DNA sequence: CTTGACCTTACCATTGTGGGAAGGTCTATA
DNA sequence: TATAGACCTTCCCACAATGGTAAGGTCAAG
């Protein structure tokens, strides 16, 4: 079957199938005389595996590991479990980070009148002078509370 | 002060300051005779504003809006609040998606022996044939359902 | 045989950030 | 004063994962 059919059958776009091939995540597809990529059911099976892993937030690199383990019928389940649990920890970390940002901002928004007047704790917080000047009365949950800043080197 | 000092004072890297200038988020800095960018305390203040907004997960585009509102002393606080709450919703959505992926995977890992034997429910789930049966109730965020995939983000 | 749907490769863009090279400048110290 | 080293400048490259588009070839149905 051609790439369009394989894409429809697997849920991975044709674009991404070519991309995965180009980076070596999947082997090069065989070609028809005309140069069209040709996929077997087995290939589609692998693509579905990839789609599911991707839906679970695995990176291409991790998917590569998982594919290798999948193909190795004798690997220990502990190897798979380790990768999975590492990924769970990573997902949790990211989710918590977003959650904390959300809560900080929701808190600020909760103190904002949200009317036609210009005074706004959200803006005040963002523009706050760390030094001397600019003393306001608003309740200010200082940023250090989020635990995000120390490691604000987001990749 | 030069860009290095401004970076240290604001928490925004010199690299990013130049980038923000290049995309028009901040105005072009004045220059010394030698061509060095020169920053005032006001400039640093703006950079700190930007850093804090970044820490709260705002995109450059949203920061641009916030900066405009910040500079407009007569804007209604409702305008700021609206942007903030939209962002809160976005953060919540992303956090929830990550959380769901995490839970699905943790659930699978919980059923994996994690020993030297090869049988592994995690791999089984990923490689399962959809044609056969599909009676799990795991959260699979099908594309289009979450609105996150179009830009599977995580910069 | 034409038409339209599909394939091919090869670029470009996205988002926000870092790395590095090649070359100019500033400053402190020998 | 000369020189080293820390800084600055611009410019280009890279990342992850995905979509878009253009130019051209192919296939199948009418």
UniProtKB/TrEMBL annotation, chains A, B:
It is found in: Cytoplasm. GO terms for cellular component: cytoplasm. Residues 81-108 form a coiled coil. Residues 1-69 form the HTH merR-type domain. GO terms for molecular function: copper ion binding; DNA binding; DNA-binding transcription factor activity. Residues 127-155 are annotated as: Disordered. Keywords: Coiled coil, Cytoplasm, DNA-binding, Transcription, Transcription regulation. InterPro entries: CueR (IPR011789), DNA-bd_dom_put_sf (IPR009061), MerR-type_HTH_dom (IPR000551), MerR_fam (IPR047057), Tscrpt_reg_MerR_DNA-bd (IPR015358). One of its GO terms (biological process) is positive regulation of DNA-templated transcription. CDD domains: HTH_CueR (cd01108). This is Cu(I)-responsive transcriptional regulator. It comes from Marinobacterium lacunae. The lineage of its organism: Bacteria, Pseudomonadati, Pseudomonadota, Gammaproteobacteria, Oceanospirillales.
